[in-house]
Amino acid sequence: MDLGFGDQNQQMGGQALEAVGMIAGMQENMLDQELHKLDNLDGKDLAKIREERVKAMKERRLEEAEWSRHGHGHLTQLTDTKEFFAACKNSKRLVCHFMRPTSHHCVAINGHLAKMASLHRETRFCMFEAEKSPYLCDKILADEEGKVVIPTIVLVVEGKVTYQIRGLAELGGEQCNCEIMAAVLQIHGLIEGEAAKHEYDDGAPKFGSVEEYRAHAIREGFFEKQFAEDDDFSDDDYTGLAEDA
Predict the structure, then answer these.
(1) Residue 226 CB: number of other CB atoms within 10 A?
(2) Is the CB of residue 151 less than 8 Å from the CB of residue 235?
(3) Cα torsion at 129, 131, 136, 138 (round to 10°)?
(4) CB within 8 A of 231, min separation 6: which ones?
């Protein structure tokens, strides 16, 4: 059998193939062991699993109540600099969109963030009109040349700005959607996990979380539906001096 390594390297190719087979066998054995453990659980084991699950659910509910108290679950608008810093302090994870209400890009991003806020309650999503805080433009948004890009999405973890998404290039440009945005946010640790593309597209704000959406979708038989995108960006990114933002 020709493995594509050339006549002189068939032995090396055979060893590589054998190694792949060994890894696959090990993974299969591990899976068999886990299935065997599940098949042989007794009443005490099941009771312990249930107790741990109930405890985790209670802790999660307490977390969610705390999140709601601090504005999680929907896209909120911040109005001044003090409110921004308070939001950074009160939420472990914060996504803040510095925007201009006349920008079509910003309006579209707000729509995506509103959907994500309802599904990712572990994170607070908010927006801030950049013109209302020259201080934040100068101290946080401006680059080394003093320029501010609108829109800019500031990512905050445990009170510290960890990353800034400037403009739309990193979000897919005019193809920007919730799926791409979620992938970027997960890479930077701002959400616990991504939902599927159709979960974001399916009027997600009416559901309380990713888990609630999936439970509904399974019950209704909608889980494999496909939804078309309708995002349409038409205006260009704005780049200007911080003092003009």
Answers:
(1) 7
(2) no
(3) 150
(4) 108, 174, 175, 176, 177
- Residue 45 domain flag: no
Domain count, the chain: 2
Distances (CA, A) of 52 to 18, 43, 55, 73, 122: 41, 14, 5, 26, 21
Are 19 and 79 found together in one domain?
no
| The two three-digit tokens of residue 97, written as one number | 């969109």
Kindly report, residue by residue over 60-71, the tens digit of the pLDDT: 566 666 666 667
Residue type, 188: H
Cα 181 from Cα 113, distance rounded (Å)? 9
| Each residue's pLDDT tens digit, 186-201 | 999 999 875 555 556 6
Q: Quote the tokens at residue 209.
A: 């979380």
Q: Which residue has the higher pLDDT, 20 or 111?
A: 111
Same-domain status, 96 and 166: yes
Percent of the chain with pLDDT over 70: 58
How far separated are the first and last CA of the chain, in Å rounded?
66
Q: Which residues of 124-163 are buried (b: 16+ CB within 10 A; e: fewer)?
A: bbbbbbbeebeebbeebbbeeeeebbbbbbbbbbeeeeeb
Residue that is written with structure tokens 């009771």 in the block = 47
pTM of the model: 0.59
**Same structural domain, 26 and 110:** no
